[in-house]
Amino acid sequence: DRRVIPDVKPGYMRELLPDAAPAEPEDWENIFNDIERVIMPGASSPACTELEMILMDWLCRALGLPVFFLHHHPDSRGGGVLQSSVSESTLVALLAARKDKILQLRAELDQDVDDSVLNARLVAYASVQAHSSVEKAGLISLVKIRFLPTDETLSLRGDTLKQAVQEDRRRGLVPFMLCSTLGTTGVCAFDQLTELGPVCEEEGLWLHVDAAYAGSAYLCPELRWSLQGVEFAHSFVFNPSKWMMVHFDCTAFWVKDKFKLQQTFSVDPVYLRHENSQAATDFMHWQIPLSRRFRSLKLWFVMRSFGLKNLQAHIRHVRNALTQELLRRLTRSGTMYLIPAEIHSKRIIRFTVTSQFTTAEDIRRDWGVISKTASVLLAETQ
Length: 382
Ligand code: PLP
Prior knowledge:
Helix content is 43%, strand content 13%. The protein is α/β, with parallel strands linked by helices. Helix 3 packs across helix 5 (132-141) and helix 10 crosses helix 11 (360-381).
C-alpha cells in the first residue's frame, strides 16, 4: 500500500519533531501514533538516519555536552551516531585519529612513504585503568598504546601525559591520541580532563572520552563536575544501554569533526550512490559496517516515555537510596535524631539544632558520627 521509495526531502523530519527531549513523560499511545506520522512517510530510510540525528542532538543537549557535537547547529562540524558498542566506537575514533595524523605527516614530508611506515611511528595513550577495549583497538590497528600510571585516586593527570608525550617525541615517535575515561570499569574513577585537555591541544592529540557507564549520570546537572574539560574532546562515547534503561545494544558516539570520520571510512562503489548523496548525511561513512539497525527508535521511546525528569530521577534514585540508608543507620545509632526532606526531587537529611544546651563540641561530635557512617556506607557500595 505504500510507496517503495519515499517522496520526502532530506531534513523532512526536523519539522515534525522538537529540538530537545521532553522534560515530562508522554503517553505510550501518543508516542506509538508518531510511528505513522513521523517514521512511515520516510520508510526505513531516510527516516532511520533522520531520527538518529535528531535523537543524538536530544541526547547531546540532555547530557550538557558541547554544541560542537550537535548535528543541527550553525557552529558545528560534528554530530552523533549510534554504534553497537563502546569498543567499536573507540576503535572508530582511533582509526579516525590515525588517519588524520597520517595525512598531516604525509603533508609535511616531501618524499613518498608508505602509510604502514608512518603507522609504525604512531603512539596513543590511556591510563592503566582504561578498559581493555583500548588495548584491543591498538591490537587491531597495529598502533602502540602506552598505558600511563594514575594518581592515588586512580585518575590520569595532565603532567603524566605531558611527560610521556615528551619522552616519546625524543624517541622519534609521533603521539596522536589520548583515550581518557570518565568512570573507569574498576572503581568509576575520572581522568582529569581539565588538565589533559590542554595537553592534548598543545601536543596535537585527538582526545577521546570513554564514559561507557558513567555517561548516563550527566543527565543530572549536579553530576557534571567530572565533565569539565570535555570542551577539549574530539570524540565522546557512552552506553545508554548501561544506565539509561535503553535495551542493549545502544552506544552513543559523537565526533567534533565529522569530516575526519568520513575521510577515514568513505568508499564510493556505484551500488551505494544515490541522488541525495550530497544533501543528506549518510551514516555508512561514520562506522565500520554498511548496514544499520534502527536503534534510535528505542532511544526515542525511552526518552519520551520517561521524560528527562524521570530519567534524571532514575539516576538520582541510587544516590537517594544511599541517603535513605545513611539516615536509617544514623537514627538506629541512637546518638542523634534526624529526618529526611526532598529538595528539587533530591533526598536530603535535615540536621537541626533546637536545644539551648547544644554546644559547638556536640555538633563536631555529631558531624564525626555522620561522616564516619557515610564513609563506611560508601565503602560498602564500591
Ligand atoms: N569502557 C568502559 C569504561 C567500560 O566499563 C566498558 C564495559 O563494559 C567498556 C568500555 C566496553 O563497552 P562495550 O561492551 O560497549 O564495548
